[in-house]
Amino acid sequence: MSKYLRPTALRDVRTHYCAGCGHGIIHRMIAELLDELGVRENAIGIAPVGCAILAHEYLRIDMTEAPHGRAPAVATGIKRIHPDKLVICYQGDGDLAAIGTGETIHTAARGENISVIFVNNAVYGMTGGQMAPTTMVKQLTQTTPKGRDSAVHGYPIRVCELLSALDGPVYIERTCLSNPANVRKARRAILKSFKCQLDGRGYSLVEILSPCPTYWRLPPNQALKFIDEQMTKVYPLGVFRDFEKKG
């Protein structure tokens, strides 16, 4: 009989995340994969400002915090000094696609050999539910009470599509957490991202559409339906870049 045990790479602490939040699921997947690959003691995580900032409270690996948006720059420095380490950026959409847009694009363009886990919940979670770069047209937020207006606020940024136009990345995939089957797909994508880095292939990014029941103002089960029925129409799932060999 097999037992569903806590991964060694996951700390035994009480969660601070809101009910129905997807971060805990993603933490668990990362921890399981670090154990399976046998790289827990050789991994370094970078978590910047946002809901992701306290990832160090949950993952039992070496971690550092980065100023808002600067995780790719910090990761670049760490990886170049320690090329033997598995370097993981763990970022939300408000961080990666707003103040960190420049770092994200140029790190990807250079093909830095790091793994980016991009959690997209289409809203600023930590600071009160304001409109994010990934907030969808007509989506209600604290700063768009009548819905995002494309004529005023512009359109949401599709990170996977944007980065896949660059030559540097070797692997880019968008996944989600709407049901167990999609969680398993997200896990496989994270595994592939880690293997890309361990094989020295270059930059990879896994985007994960994740629920935020608190600021979507939805019960957790309805938040999962929102991903399938609304988010995936704007952010289609799939592989956007997969180069077996860099260049």
Structure characterization notes:
The protein is an alpha/beta fold and 247 residues long. 36% of the residues lie in helices and 16% in strands. It contains nine helices and seven strands; from the N terminus they run H-E-E-H-E-H-H-E-H-H-E-H-E-H-H-E. It has helices at residues 23-37, 71-81, 93-99, 101-110, 150-153, 159-163, 180-198, 213-216, 220-234; strands spanning 43-47, 62-65, 86-92, 115-120, 171-176, 204-209, 238-242. The protein has a seven-stranded mixed beta sheet, sandwiched between helices. Helix 1 crosses helix 7 (180-198) and helix 3 crosses helix 4. The longest helix has 19 residues, at 180-198. The mean pLDDT is 95.
Q: What's the average pLDDT?
A: 95
Low-confidence parts = none
Relevant CATH superfamily:
Thiamin diphosphate (ThDP)-binding fold, Pyr/PP domains
As laid out across the biggest beta sheet, the strand order is 2-1-3-4-6-5-7
Q: What's the end-to-end separation, in Å?
A: 46 Å
Strand content: 15-25%
Q: What letter string, H or E per element, gives the SSE order? A: HEEHEHHEHHEHEHHE
Binned, the helix content reads 25-40%
CATH architecture: 3-Layer(aba) Sandwich
Radius of gyration: 17 Å
Instruction: Determine the number of helices (DSSP H or I, runs of at least 4 residues).
Output: 9
Shape by Cα distribution: globular
Beta strand count: 7
Structural class of the helices, strands and pairings?
Answer: alpha/beta
Q: Look up the CATH topology.
A: Rossmann fold
CATH top level class name: Alpha Beta
Number of domains: 1
Largest sheet report: 7 strands, mixed
